[in-house]
């Protein structure tokens, strides 16, 4: 179902690509609609392979660019998050930093990503999403980044 909904959401992009390449012709609009769906289907299908590489991915995260995880709120994990920000594994910009939240921007080739880290009662919520065009699948780029962050947190917390 998500595959179909993403194809429909991406239809305007496919339709626009077709008409930019071939011009707008009112007499031949049905052909443009068909090619719009074919192009949007191709974009979603291309993304599908990158998400399929992750066997552990939940269906709620499948073909999405927004992912979140919740960790136990303790000072050790919060300090490790701060250390990771000081020595990042990707190029980041700190947008906002306070005692209970951190907002980071990851510069990507096309669409930048935003990471929001917040202390909420007994949990630390880490969320990553595209800065713009949040409904577009991102070839599992944000999911991989979040998994790298979680892996780095677990290995540094377990080795202490």
Describe the structure.
18% of the residues are buried. The chain has helices spanning 2-9, 11-22, 29-52, 75-86, 141-159, and strands at 67-72, 92-97, 101-106, 113-120, 123-130. It is built from 5 helices and 5 strands. Helix 1 crosses helix 3 (29-52) and helix 4 (75-86) packs across helix 5 (141-159). The protein has a 5-stranded antiparallel sheet with strand order 1-5-4-3-2. The model has no long low-confidence stretch (mean pLDDT 82). With 160 residues, it is an alpha+beta fold. It folds into 2 domains: 2-52, no CATH class; 67-159, Kinase associated domain 1, KA1 (TATA-Binding Protein).
Descriptive labels:
elongated; TATA-Binding Protein; 2 domains; 160 residues; 5-stranded antiparallel β-sheet; alpha+beta
Lay out the secondary structure.
Blueprint: H1 2-9, H2 11-22, H3 29-52, E1 67-72, H4 75-86, E2 92-97, E3 101-106, E4 113-120, E5 123-130, H5 141-159
Antiparallel strand pairs: 1-5, 2-3, 3-4, 4-5
Helix pairs in contact: 1-3, 2-3, 4-5
């Amino acid at each position: 179902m998500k595959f179909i909904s993403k194809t429909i959401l991406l239809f305007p992009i496919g339709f626009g690509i077709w008409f930019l390449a071939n011009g707008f012709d009112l007499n031949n609009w049905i052909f443009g609609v068909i090619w719009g769906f074919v192009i949007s289907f191709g974009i979603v299908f291309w993304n599908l392979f990158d998400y399929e590489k992750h066997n552990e991915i939940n269906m709620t995260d499948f073909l999405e660019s927004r992912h979140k995880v919740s960790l136990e709120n303790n000072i050790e994990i919060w300090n490790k998050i701060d250390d990771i920000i000081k020595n990042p594994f990707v190029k980041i910009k700190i947008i906002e930093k306070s005692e209970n939240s951190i907002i980071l921007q990851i510069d990507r080739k096309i669409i930048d990503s935003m990471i929001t880290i917040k202390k909420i009662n007994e949990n630390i919520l880490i969320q990553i999403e595209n800065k713009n065009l949040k409904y577009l699948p991102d070839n599992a780029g944000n999911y991989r980044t979040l998994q790298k962050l979680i892996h780095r947190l677990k290995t540094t917390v377990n080795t202490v």
